[in-house]
Amino acid sequence: MEAIEIIEYLRQRELNVTLTDDDSLELSPSEKITHELIERLRKHKPAIIEELKREQRREKVAGMLANNPTIQRAFVTDTESDPDNVILTMAIRDQASFEMLIPRRKYDPFMLLELIERSAIQ
Fold it and tell me: Is the peptide bond before 69 cis (omega within 30 degrees of 0)?
């Protein structure tokens, strides 16, 4: 949970941490950045990046539900972040959101769509 704690620490101090397209961290405003903070970020950078990506995926499915009031489920698959797995992020309106890792060798997007369509979750 160290990454989550660091991100919360930054946000409580009104520091913005964002993930760039090339998986670098951007921190602002610069006047609030200390040497100690930079060292802490370097030490935990992979975990922080992973957590920010998780937040982005969850925000994306939540936004899909917010923008489409008639749908009950929204999902995204991330095939880039993990070399061994596909990350499925799913939100079910007024119920839950979750992520699951699907081994890349077993991932079948058409079977996934069929399972979601057949699900009894309303």
Answer: no
pLDDT per residue over 52-80, tens digit each?
999 999 999 999 999 999 999 999 999 99
Token pair for residue 30?
């610069």
Question: Parallel, antiparallel, or unpaired for β 96-103 and 85-92?
Answer: antiparallel
Distance CA 109, CA 115 (A): 10
Kindly state the tokens that stand for 108. 């079948």
Tokens of 1: 């949970």
Structural tokens at position 69: 């009031």
Beta-bridge partners for 73: 92
H or E element at residue 92: strand 85-92
Give dist(CA 101, CA 97) in Å, integer.
14
CB atoms within 10 A of CB 91: 25
The answer to whether 48 touches 25, Cβ cutoff 8 Å, is yes
